[in-house]
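User: Please predict structures.

Assistant: First:
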Amino acid sequence: MFSRISQVARHLSRPAPNYLHNSAASGLSATTSRAMAAERSKRTINTAACLIIGDEVLGGKTVDTNSAWFAKYCFSMGINLKRVEVIADDESEIIEAAKRMSSTYDFVVTSGGIGPTHDDITYQSIAKAYDLPLVLHDAAYERMKRLSKPHPSQKDFSYDVDSPARRAKLRMIELPYDKNLADEDQVIFAADDLWVPINVVNGNIHILPGIPRLFEKMLTGLKPRILPRLTDPEGKGVYRVLFSTPLAESEVAGYLTELSSKVEGKGVKVGSYPRWGKSRNTVTLVGRDQEFMDSLIPEVEQGVKGRRIQTEGEDDDAGSDKDT
């Protein structure tokens, strides 16, 4: 019986077929869709989501570090990262996840699937999601020719001669593009020495490569465009206070429950993190009201029989495992 119920639940939780997505989109006029995308590209950013795309991540060949870096990026600016997903290089999955995230969160970043090979299908999938053509972007092409050097194995490569290698390279700058929207809202060059653009679709989906050094550099370059759209335009981010405690989680749980209830109304979250194999565990306060949080430090130090620290592990010493 349980098995049959589980099968039904899985069936009901599956993404809607593409034709249902398309029919929903077709209910809006092209003019309305463009207006919504334009508005979405300017709205205040409170929430974010990260979509990691790649069979190599799911297969264990590559370790995803981009989502962790993006989490720190969001935290530093006070953006509430609400969701991280890892999906396959599968058109239907990319379409479903991109549309769902775009409609739910203010700032969406995708990572991966924009290379020159057959399995790099992020651009074509997101173009299909929003019924957009793939357009060879002239400025990106000029930058590619100027900044991208052929691989040593491609001694005879030329941008002026059609070849399989040239066609493969051009796939990386054939972008989902709406000719009715401003170019600067769809294609962003985050650094002078990079030809890879940040392609923005539906106003808030930012398509980035999966290579960590490029992912990080491009988002860093995007930051000046993000800051004015934050609740706090100075981008001071969220304030975090760390405490080191010699107590086991089970020992400090009662106090932390009381503390959490006390500070919830001030927008402060209390966290507890066991550190397996270490003599001390970590307690955190996270919020925006720095003055209020600082006023709690003596109380929390007493409650957890520990002290405030700047970096986790800075006061480690020899000791046995603590329970979790």
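Second:
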Amino acid sequence: MPDLVLWGATGQAKVLFDLVHGSDRRLVGLVDNRDIASPIPGVPLFVGEAGLDRFLHGRSGSETLIGGVAVGGGRGADRLMLMDLFKARGIALPTFVHRTAFTAFNAVIGEGCQILAQAAVCANVTLGRGVIVNTAASIDHDGVVGDGVHLGPGARLAGEVTVEAFAFIGTGAVILPRVTIGAGAMVGAGAVVTKDVPAGVTVVGNPARVRMKEGATP
């Protein structure tokens, strides 16, 4: 039975704990940069890299140790940095797929992805590293999703959509076919995106439009 350690001690950790509960993966520790109480009874929390290293130094036995990064939202770059931190310590990064999720036989899924309850990753989809496909989100055929992207609950990507690295797609958003979402862009909850979104901007509404900064001239 492989042992599992998660970096992150908020809601995403609870979601991943539920995902592995009853499986052959046993959650043995949480790591967080804050000195807070563990949100999961009986599972210890270690503070920062120093706490993780003390935990690793004190481990006994030959159980395989795997890791997951329970950091969601628009923090994809942080998620990949923490994945690399785990890898540097010899901690493998599996993909987590909920028992109720669907993944097509020919989907290509990068390391450390999280495909949560009732999500769908359809034919010929490619996911990069550390992608989160949250509860009931879906990616239709031939989608390409870059490293560190997070699709919020219920988000819908139609066929042939491209989402570049570190973008965030909000809860219930809909991306129409053959649209590209640029790197680091944010799509607001419930938005309907009908055309390409430039890198680094935030779009909201139906149809989605760039949200202007306060005081900016349209």
